[in-house]
Write the structure tokens for this entry.
Amino acid sequence: MADHSDEKEFSSEYLQEIERQVIKKMGYISSELAHDLRSPLQTIQNALYLIQKNPDNEMLYDMVRQSLKQTTMILDSFRDYYKGHIINPMETEAAKIVDLALSNSEIPDNITVVKDYNQSIRICVDPSKTALAIQKLVINAVQAMAKGGELRVTISDSSDSVAIRVEDSGAGIPPEAEEFLFDPFVASKKQGNGLGVPTAKRIVESHGGVLSYLTKEGEGTTFTLSFPKPSVDT
């Protein structure tokens, strides 16, 4: 009979290493989340202290409201990232999902939205989660075009996949930011908390798909969400 003691020992060490990596990752995420929450919570604490001395100062109440909104947004973003892998796929038109994502996004008047897609292309995904992933990339594109520009969303299909592209005409992603683009809480812009693109990636990969991008400084960035095409029963 073969001796499998070495195999068991290897498996045990491997699992322990995986556990260490998970604990390390969760420690990092917890630390960054606490860091992001500290600022608005400190503002609320200071405002409440000042309100006790000057209860008629409406500006102090606005500070509390804005800080509470910021805190809620941070927690919502973390929830979106953490639960990105929980999906309930169904077959539907890809165009409906893109339209939902765009309708849920705040797009300034100085940005032109171009829709370039065939309404009949179907896709098997979790509609709300996929719309959220697209919305995260739309927000990212809007932030990249502070002075305005063009936001183009396209849908195309091949024999085995459906691709949804979100393209902006912004400044592009700086080379030093590309290395950390998919890492949570590593934001290249101060407007965000570094969870938008990682959340989109997590959602797409949970569907067995791939999130990729092309960028060129001064010309813009295109993110492509590629999903496996629904199989056809024969």
